[in-house]
């Protein structure tokens, strides 16, 4: 594994000193120096902190980008959260990995129900939505910006504002959501 060499290369590519990377990552300068010289192998948590501070993924730092992984998530095996009061369902369609900054989700809202308010994400996080079935009402901010989408419609927005989703129709609403955290500001 070339983790240390890749950290050093990425740090220099970003024109960062060891001190600056230490400040951004919360990992001491001496520890970073030992990692770059490959004298020390960091814990997964520390490695993730370094990757986040360098605005890259852990997979890229350990050189896994050359190996292509395939994940199959069967319907019966995927993670799902269901709000008992509203019936709102969130099905996770992408693998949950610490280095994954992209989430692919299927949300299902019963007729006359809503998601509740989602808090603002950090600046740089974006959301992409495509309605597969039914009608979806998207409320951004304090509800002052509202969009109504029909089957086949899509919307994209900077998700650094409160947002909620509602189904004001008479049939179930199913929509796909992609949360992109690659541009997230630290």
Automatic annotation (TrEMBL):
Protein's UniProt keywords contain DNA-binding: yes
Listed PROSITE patterns: HTH_CROC1
Signal peptide span: none
UniProt-listed Pfam families: Cupin_2 (PF07883), HTH_3 (PF01381)
Domain HTH cro/C1-type: 7-61
InterPro entries: Cro/C1-type_HTH, Cupin_2, Lambda_DNA-bd_dom_sf, RmlC-like_jellyroll, RmlC_Cupin_sf, TransReg_Diox_bact_type
Record's keyword terms, sorted: DNA-binding
Domain of life: Bacteria
CDD domains in alphabetical order: cupin_XRE_C, HTH_XRE
Protein's name according to its UniProt entry: XRE family transcriptional regulator
């Amino acid at each position: 594994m070339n983790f240390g060499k890749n950290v050093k290369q990425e740090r220099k590519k970003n024109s960062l000193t060891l001190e600056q990377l230490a400040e951004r990552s919360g990992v001491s300068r001496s520890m970073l120096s030992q990692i770059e010289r490959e004298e020390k192998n960091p814990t997964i948590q520390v490695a993730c902190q370094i990757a986040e501070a360098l605005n890259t993924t852990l997979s890229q730092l350990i050189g896994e980008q050359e190996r292509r992984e395939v994940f199959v998530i069967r319907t019966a095996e995927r993670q799902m959260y269901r709000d008992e009061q509203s019936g709102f369902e969130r099905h996770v369609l992408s693998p949950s990995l610490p280095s994954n900054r992209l989430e692919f989700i299927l949300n299902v809202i019963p007729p006359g129900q809503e998601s509740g308010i989602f808090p603002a994400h950090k600046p740089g996080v974006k959301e992409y939505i495509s309605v597969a079935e039914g009608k979806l009402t998207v409320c951004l901010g304090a509800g002052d910006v509202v969009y109504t989408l029909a089957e086949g419609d899509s919307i994209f927005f900077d998700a650094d504002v409160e947002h909620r989703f509602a189904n004001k129709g008479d049939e179930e609403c199913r929509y796909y959501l992609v949360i992109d955290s690659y541009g997230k500001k630290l």
